[in-house]
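Entry 14. Ran structure prediction on the chain below.
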Amino acid sequence: MSTTKLGGYLVIIAAIGLFISQLFDGFVSAQASGLIEIWANAGFTFAMFAFCYYFLQNDKDNGLLYLIPILALMGWTANSVGIGMRLPQETTNIESVNALTSMAGAVGFSAGGAGFLSNALLGYYILGKPKFNSNIIYKIVTALCVIGSLGFVALGILIPLATEGREVAEAVGKAGDNILPFNPALMAIIWIPGLISTLIWTIWTGLIFVKK
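Output, structure tokens:
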């Protein structure tokens, strides 16, 4: 199997895994959701290397294609480490769960946005390559994914800077909510459309590369 095809298959599986982990977060154990997301992050990372390798065959002097895999590796690795630190959250006592959760969040947010930034930059690159796929609907979905990914990056920067603390944990293994100067529900305006556009674009792009 070629690198391109493998990247296509893995990014499809990764997108579905990420969507499932986010959709059922709170309905299944944090360990199960976290493990799915960690493996999904690995799939995204490899796919970015594979896709950029494909484009480099005909565009060797494009620095963006060298930057994207580095951002993907940095971002998805930071996100995975942060998730891994949260895995024992449900078995942590009430005195330490807030500290564990805050440290995990700090690690994940520190560079996690770079993973979504790599998605945005790859989408931007593809938009500049009309021969890659001339389908107008695909172009619209790609543009929406770029916007959604940049929204994720903005959230990753905003949340740590805006967080004013954390409420006291009231249950064993359950951390208190972040204290933010705005209604956290407003983040859903960015999160849900961004997640859906990322899922559709990633699967569609993966299918294109599977056929390469």
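The first helix runs from residue 3 to 23. Will compare against last week's run tomorrow.
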